[in-house]
């Protein structure tokens, strides 16, 4: 059994896998990591492996306490990834993006794949059918957009994510919801259209904390799976032990 952990910039997500089956799924803040992992191990005593993807750099220390009880694999740029990396700065490519690209490559062989991760940031990653990773884009995530409008202006309130009632926002709150939610939907649709003009076929995997909220608003058929990063970690783990 393996415990996969994804340390994002907003939250920590974890899942316990036995082969291809997800046995449990967890979300918790960074401060609680020690206690939460202890609880998970109590609940699933057969967990022997811990595989971690983190976008931070000091986070490894958080997991060293478990080194004696678990086989710890902290994914790094030095690990083997099942794609050719054409990013011009591979050392600065986010580990989360590399894990998503690896998961898409392993799970959807021999096809073009676009992975959109709507988390703290929205990231776009493209891996072609020959398993070449091209790169993509990074933009502010949904929550970050609400916080930025509030933090960098005098008058804009901090709102929680909500459905815009109208396309034409008729109040401050409605104008913000329309600007942010419709704006992000236009952004994603626009990116997808631009990729479609260059690559006629590809599958789209939408993941991250806002995947479900966004999925129903997008015009293209997408595969929404908010746990894709954790599942990708499990794929990478199985790929490694299968070798
Ligand atoms: N309970 C929650 N706490 C924080 N963000 C949440 C929560 N539920 C949904 N979200 C949304 O999830 C996004 C963060 O997604 P997540 O994939 O966890 O980010 P990261 O991987 O960067 O930590 C935020 O933009 C926010 O809108
Ligand atoms: C772009 C990110 C901040 C996204 O982080 P997340 O939204 O998943 O928390 C992360 O992938 C990162 O730190 N990337 C480094 C820069 C790059 O990928 O080129
Ligand atoms: K992201």
Automatic annotation (TrEMBL):
Swiss-Prot/TrEMBL cofactor(s): NH4(+); K(+)
Reactions catalysed according to its record: (R)-pantothenate + ATP = (R)-4'-phosphopantothenate + ADP + H(+)
Cofactor: record remark: A monovalent cation. Ammonium or potassium.
UniProt cross-references to Pfam families, sorted A to Z: Pan_kinase (PF03309)
Source superkingdom: Bacteria
Annotated active site: 96
Tagged with keyword ATP-binding: yes
Places the protein is found: Cytoplasm
PANTHER family in the record: TYPE III PANTOTHENATE KINASE (PTHR34265)
Subunit architecture: Homodimer.
Listed name of the protein: Type III pantothenate kinase
Record organism: Flavobacterium gilvum
Taxonomy of the source species: Bacteria, Pseudomonadati, Bacteroidota, Flavobacteriia, Flavobacteriales
């Amino acid at each position: 059994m393996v415990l996969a952990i994804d340390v994002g910039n907003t939250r920590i997500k974890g899942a316990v896998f036995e082969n291809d089956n997800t046995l449990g799924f967890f979300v918790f803040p960074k401060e609680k990591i020690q206690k939460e992992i202890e609880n998970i191990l109590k609940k699933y005593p057969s967990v022997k492996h811990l595989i971690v993807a983190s976008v931070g750099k000091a986070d490894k220390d958080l997991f060293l306490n478990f080194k004696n009880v678990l086989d710890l694999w902290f994914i790094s740029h030095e690990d083997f990834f099942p794609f050719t990396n054409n990013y011009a700065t591979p050392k600065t490519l986010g580990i989360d993006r590399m894990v998503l690209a690896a998961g898409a490559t392993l799970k959807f062989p021999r096809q073009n794949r676009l992975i959109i991760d709507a988390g703290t940031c929205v990231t776009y990653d493209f891996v072609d059918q020959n398993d070449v990773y091209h790169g993509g884009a990074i933009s502010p995530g949904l929550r970050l957009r609400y916080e930025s409008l509030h933090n960098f202006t005098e008058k804009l309130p901090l709102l929680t994510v909500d459905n815009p009632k109208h396309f034409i926002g008729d109040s401050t709150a409605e104008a913000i919801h329309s600007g942010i939610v419709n704006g992000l939907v236009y952004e994603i649709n626009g990116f997808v259209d631009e990729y479609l003009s260059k690559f006629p076929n590809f599958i789209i995997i939408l993941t991250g904390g806002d995947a479900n909220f966004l999925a129903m608003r997008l015009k293209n058929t997408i595969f929404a799976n908010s746990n894709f990063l954790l599942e990708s970690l499990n794929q990478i783990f199985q790929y490694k032990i299968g070798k």
